[in-house]
Amino acid sequence: AVVKSKSTGKYVAYAYGYTAWGKKILLNKKSYSIGKKHMVKQGLFYEKYNGKTYKFYYINNERQTNLTKILKLKKGSGRYTIELNRAAGVVTVYLYDTKTKSYDIPVQAFSVSVGRDVSTNAGPGALALHSSYTPLGNFSVCSNGQAVRYTLKPMHEPDGSTVYARWAVHIVGNVYFHAIAVGSQSHYALRASNYNKLGSAASAGCIRMTVADAKWLYDYAAVGSSVKIEKGNSKKPGPLGKAATIKIAESINYDPTDPSVPAATKKKDYKAGRISGYMPSKGKKVCRAISVATACPFISLARS
Hints:
The protein is mainly beta. The protein is 8% helix and 34% strand.
């Protein structure tokens, strides 16, 4: 018999048999204890990380790192707190918990590239040629009344050149969340060297993301959502950790998470070892199977 134990404690199991005359007879009994280590975690649990309590969601003991579908989140209607740990290169999105009356439900975390500089003489609205700095402070989506979102935004670099960023979400001044900018309005103009820097400081001040991650913010984060940019700690990236990044070979000129790139193209390059993972048109991210803890690791990439 299989019985689901819904709580910890001491239990006694009784085994009965019946005689030919229908008399019930105790055959055996056994006492046992159910501890926390025996319980299968399902659903929401309050747990601590770095001294703070957060609400995590588990399925079969596995902590979920994307609650979009689990919580049935709707596009454009959610007020979130978006926190950037600049030292770790991690953005974590939090949802409001009506029980605790605080933003303590981590919905998803993104590995990002922040500005190369850790200090600047320029203000957050005046990123200059000699300032590749992501400003610290409390902002919001559309902090100063500028246009909030762009599906494709021309961006003028400090050196005078123009690049194009998809799914740009404005924070403050010249600082945006956006997919890695490219030199033309093409889905096939990505520089592999820029993409492979995701998770480390590499930008001119904006927060670089994959296409899929930038589009999530574009779709779900409503105007007014809080944006907190903190110095942070590289050893404590956030309650959902730091997602491993996909790596691409020098011959690849597209983002493997871009839904506009055919799944067949991604699958072919993945099988050939030119990309370490990709997002199909539907479903979960496909990654090299090494271990659950290091999804989408970089093993080796064959050049074509």
